[in-house]
Amino acid sequence: MRAACLGAATLAAAALACGCGASITARPPANRFDGAAAMRWVKLQVGYGPRPAGSRASRALAERLRRALPQGRFQPAPGGLRNVVGEVPGRDPGDVVVVGAHYDTKNIPGFVGAIDGASGTAVAVQLARTLGPREVRPTVVFALFDGEESPRGTPDTEAVFVRRGLRGSKVAASAWPHARAMILLDFVGNRHLSLPREGYSDARLWSRLRAAARRAGFGGAFPDRTTGPVADDHLPFRHRGVPAIDLIDFDFPCLHRRCDDLSQVSTRSLDATGESVLQLLLGS
Ligand SMILES: [Zn+2]
Prior knowledge:
Blueprint: H1 6-18, H2 35-46, H3 56-68, E1 73-77, E2 81-88, E3 92-102, H4 114-128, E4 138-145, H5 158-164, H6 167-175, E5 181-185, H7 203-216, H8 235-238, E6 244-247, H9 267-282
The structure holds zinc ion.
């Protein structure tokens, strides 16, 4: 993606107009992404209860998500699973950026995945409904993956997860192998959100995300450090050479525990993620 200077130019113009250059460092947060609406998408998903891949609840949710996305449609995946895909057309039809999240939940009795599943899906859906047609150069594909979690009863190791999980994103990566970038939203809604660069994430694209977050006024959520790599839905894209990043707060204490419920979700964290990724898209 090309780095954008629109934000800086706008701020400089504002500073000139009011003669208050110091305001450049204390910029107000961007306010175009509707964090409260994203919270409503989280609550809607959690309202379906546990949503393991292929379950009745997951399939019903998929119908609802398809209607929520612009140009919403299903993309079949093995085992009868379905990604939900929408898109916002860009000015250059040959240029594609994929924004992804998974909508299935880990198959644990009583587990509703308010953060792990619902938060990333909620931000992706709300971004799709915010970005205007031909507002940016690339067509932005919004891909909600089915079957990210590995099937019940399989060992909880990274090797098994990479082989048996990531089912929807493998299909999506084969559909858009020439995408310019892939932005994965995973654990993005928890209180005290902190998103250092995840170890497999493309360093250049991540630095652009951090710059976009600073422009949006949410740089504090993206500390300048790198954590260990996390196998996730960005890997099938990475393996095809697509620069990919994963927004995941892996210090989330309720990882794959039943406490991953609505009490963990913060509207401000959803908003910080949405505004930052929106700025990144606007600069592309
Ligand atoms: Zn999970």
